[in-house]
Amino acid sequence: MSLKVIFFTLMICHIYSTTATSLHRCGRHARLVNSNRYNCFPTCECSNPSCPPAPLLFREKVCECRHGYVFLSTTDKRCVKYSECPRYPEICRGKNIVWNECGSHCPPTCQNRRPGPCKLSCNPGCFCKPGYLLNTVTNECVKEEQCPC
Description:
Layout: H1 3-26, E1 30-34, E2 61-65, E3 69-71, E4 79-81, E5 97-103, E6 123-128, E7 132-135, E8 140-143
Antiparallel strand pairs: 1-2, 3-4, 5-6, 7-8
């Protein structure tokens, strides 16, 4: 058998196995994609994660929810519509932090008091109480005058 035939056979087997496993691995409302974000995707708890781009060496095929869906959690990879997510006001732990069904996609912080252009749609989640800003260094909500320089 020639090397070309062996190589061609191996390529067909690889394509078939990749396609077959991707269909089983991703589940409903998900698709297999080449990740460039360290496998960091929106979930019910965090609809807009801040994810650094991954170097080429760390990119891999992963499941991603289709448009309009998010993962139920970071550990439960079922895709659900965001409107079907359980509400998590109890996860807002810490001083001066509250659940807001319609918070900003880019709330002001100590380090960025006037964030640039931002989506106008609602972003449910945990936010600092009015009069407080998030100190992104300590990840705490503090009064504006307590923000570091």
